[in-house]
Batch of 2 targets.
Target 1
Amino acid sequence: MEKRLYHGAAFYPELWSSDVIAQDILLMKEAGINVARIGEFAWSRMEPEEDNIDISFFVDVINQLHANGIQTVMCTPTPTPPIWFTHGHPERMYVDENGTVMGHGSRQHACTNNAYFRKRAAIITEHIAKAIGPLPGVIGWQIDNEFKAHVAECMCETCKDLWHQWLQDRYGTVERLNEAWGTDIWSEYYHRFDQVPQPGAAPFLHNSSLRTMYQLFSYEKIAEFSDEQAAIIRNYSKAPITHNSSVAFHVDNERLFKNLDFASFDTYANFDNMPGYLINCDLFRNFKQGKDFWIMETSTSFSASLESYAKPHPNGYLRSEAVAAYALGAEAFCYWLWRQQRAGCEQPHGSVISAWGKPTVGYQSVLEVEQARKRIEPVIVASRPTQAEVAITYSDRSKAFLKTEPHRKLNHRGLVTSFYERFVDMGIHRDLTPEGADLDGYKLLFTPFLHYVSSDYRERAKALVERGGIWVIGPLTGGRTENHTVHTDAALSLELEQLAGVETLFTYPMEGTTTLGSAFGVSAPLSMWSSVFEPKGASAVGLLEQGLTPGKAFITEHRCGKGRIVMLGSMPTGEEGDLLLRKLIDHYAAEAGVTLRTDVTPGTIVAPRHTDTHDLWVVVNMNGDGGTVTIPVQATDALTQEIIQPGTLELGAFEYRIVQFSRQ
Ligand code: GAL
């Protein structure tokens, strides 16, 4: 199929009459919506009674959409099993960590590991795939909806049995599990796998290994369910399959997307949370390398439910979001939702069209997105996003470790986003790369908040260093084993410490200790659980002042092959801390020879793309204040063909430009 950019919306035809559906399709055409996502909550419409399955309503809608030039992403409806499945069957329901069994209603109320759920999910999916797979309007599939968004690890009896099986597969013998988890502590020792509890209600904290492993077990099971659904669809359709995920959910995205065809995410970041929006683009681009991602859901203006609502976007912002996404590797920019809900619990949520069929406050912005989409489409489809020189490792497995051990309420998403934000502000192009990603082509690697550094990861990072790259390790990296215990050969493991040429003398929380860290000409308070180093071959770059361990190092640097390994043992905080980190990033970006960076002003971004003959900068003002960037050599405006002279390029509020440089 010819490559194009999609502009879409979530559509719920099962909630409306045929007249409204016909009107909606006309209105979609007017608004420039060229793809609709349907079906993800419609199980009871498709199978009102057990085994009474009829997909024809959806076949008809998809055909109507297609006849009007609108393509479809079809979903499996598994987040909302109907009443015939749930009523009188508490054993099929999700059980939370306090042991509360969910009732019918809302969504994600069933246990996705329940054998009967899997059976019914497979049956309905097969019917859908058979009926809808052959339709010409279907360009993609979405499995379920936002796995584990509202729920986390299920504690039901089914999960308990599967957990025991998972442990057996992982450890082989219960003796190995006892050893790995240190179960002599608090008389936790187990004689058989079937004695190992789920980390449910308890008077005090559970064993760290138990909690983290239960999360990894849950990650694996939900990904297996996704695999199972995808395999069924593939029997009937060649269209690519995705899932609409997020960094906020209780899933391992890297594992989840392994057996899917493209990555997609939902985001409802507010206007004033630009990094919270962009981080998704810089991450999801890298779950399926070389493949465009989709923004499957975002609001036209504001998200809302009965209990709360977000701030509406300022006029102009939606278009900036869309252009930035397309430039950073999105093939589609889609809204939740097309027509405002008449019923349910999300009646107030922003949409394209109101429940009474009129434009909403976001409608004008949708038209602006469509104009921009048409304008940039030829340039975007003829180019590819350019790989960054700087990689920041992202790990959902680490998210599990941090959930078990949040220190003082540390939150993985918040930590990673604020670490990442500096790179955006500093105009450094960056990839958030999954833990298992290939590190070829990167010059500078940051590994923050990775509690367990696997030997596989270490070897890939070491190879990057040996060929001349710089690897910055920390903060909060390396201090735990695979089983969420503490290393006993050295604080951060002997292998890592020897590689980095350090010995970790102490690990302790720095907050409230008056410790200052001094490096790159800045002195800043330090925070978080920290590592204090004695160089053993490395040189000290940052030293501690005051506090408990003055004179010791918290940043070190060690030669390795043609490159260097930098240990960052603590988290500088406050304004000075931010400055110190920026100086560190700046220093090592220069040392590593990073060139893919611009002096773009904060609030404006540059997304680099390329063709065989040209480099492109898609420059977008996102904060509504306008901005500037220095153009190094004469260039062309790829949209107007006008010459752009070297020097300062100014952008107005929410303006975007595509600057084209010819490559000699
Ligand atoms: C998403 C979900 C949608 C809708 C939306 C509202 O998390 O997938 O169905 O609830 O949020 O913002």
Target 2
Amino acid sequence: MLILGLIGYPIGHSVSPAMHNAAMEHLGVEGIYLALEVRPQSLRDAVFGAKALGFKGLNVTIPFKEEVAKFFRLGEFASKIKAVNTLDLERMLGYNTDAIGFIKALEEKIDPSDKVVLVVGAGGVGKAIAYALLEKGSEVIITNRTMTKGIQLAENLSKYGDCRFHPYEKIGELEGELDIIVNATPLGMEGFERKIPVPEELLHDVLVFDTVYNPPETPLIRKAKEGGCKVVNGLDMLVYQGAESLRIWIGREPPIDVMREAVRKALGL
Ligand code: NAP
């Protein structure tokens, strides 16, 4: 019996169990994927407890992606950004599949090379996205509520390409300079503040990618549509990152359409 799960805090919004359980059923794999809420002070106990209980793997979400990286040997991409969303508990290896999920979903709408991209957020997902965009040849501007963290990230990533920090309170100044805006914060997500992470004046003539998938239409997506922007929500990113995690755990081709359908159903779409 394959036991998989997701750890995070809070975890109530997750549709990952629906997505992975549908995939395993489709593939004829006897297994279960559980969403497990873990208090931040119990992270280490939870991870090693899951290993002791025979879990094959875990996905890791907000706010643990960086903290959990300290307990594992990291795959090539994860080791560059020190953020992990997929754990192989048998081999004690940590991976990051957020970036590949994001890039696959983005490239369905736009080629990011040579585009100027504002990434809002410097947490686990913001880091992965910014690095992946630099690899694709984008010019990346990072902004973050906590300035020191954003500056640090931009400095670390500047060795990989054109990357700089812009203060969060002043991002309105970037009007007219941007091709793509990415929200890599939980703003707009079910259970978090329902406000938009950027000033409205930025929301025209850009593609807006909100990594939040629940609700599928966040206040940011709604405002961006009103401004005539192309929009992408986090749904396809979720499916593609989940598919890559499943590939790591079971070594088989993931059933993307089945996974997408399960997510849509779980979201009531
Ligand atoms: P994280 O490591 O905890 O980072 C959260 C980021 O959001 C930090 O930069 C934080 O800024 C910022 N932030 C939090 N609350 C804020 C607020 N009230 N105002 C402004 N900024 C705020 O989380 P993560 O793992 O990177 O996840 C971030 C989001 O990505 C999640 O909420 C989720 O919606 C999305 N996500 C989507 C997918 C997908 O597949 N679609 C996958 C994973 C995550 P500070 O540094 O100032 O704290």
